[in-house]
Model the fold of this input.
Amino acid sequence: MKTFFIYFFIFVNGFIFSQTENVDEITLDSLYREDQFYISLTYNLPQGKPFGYTQNSFSTGLSIGFLRDMPISKNRHWSIASGLGYAYNNIKHNFAVKNVGDQNIYSIDDNFTNNKLVLHYLEVPLEIRWRNSTQESHRFWRIYTGFKASYVFSNRTIFESNFENFTIKNNSNLNKLQYGPYVTFGYNTINFYAYYALNPLFKDVSMVSGENVDLKIFNIGFMFYIL
Done:
């Protein structure tokens, strides 16, 4: 009889422990979150281009960061998310920035061997999300749209030709605060991404021709998410 009670005690404790594990597992699963790390690969298509403006080669964009997913519906299909990230844009074009004395001179110049604008940002996105995900599957449709503010903490323009070379770092004529809406939609791994800046890259800048510079960032590409 003593042996029976020992085995019974072991069985009951094992059963209770297993049930506790199952409850914890269900509770954790029911609080799942989606898509909290992101990476985007994009192509730059500047808007508000001055007369004669063209791009050359491939103008790349990259962003990487973290978004805190905060579900707001019982089935967790709706949520909001905010976070912090890093972004990089490399725009290759014929828009030249040259320094003469203490002034930057802006013009369209096709006589170059290398001409680009490189931007590094800290970005703060805020978005509302819809997805039809479940606890059991990470393959689902998603539509995320939001707004982000980006701070340009470093910028550099490079103009190189057979006759002259200019490298200008942290141009004070550049708007350090950029902002605009974006949208991401797709299924599973493949997600289309687009962002449009509402304010221009440069502030109160005119070209040699007298035309105002109203260049704005427009990125299109793909977004990839990691839990």
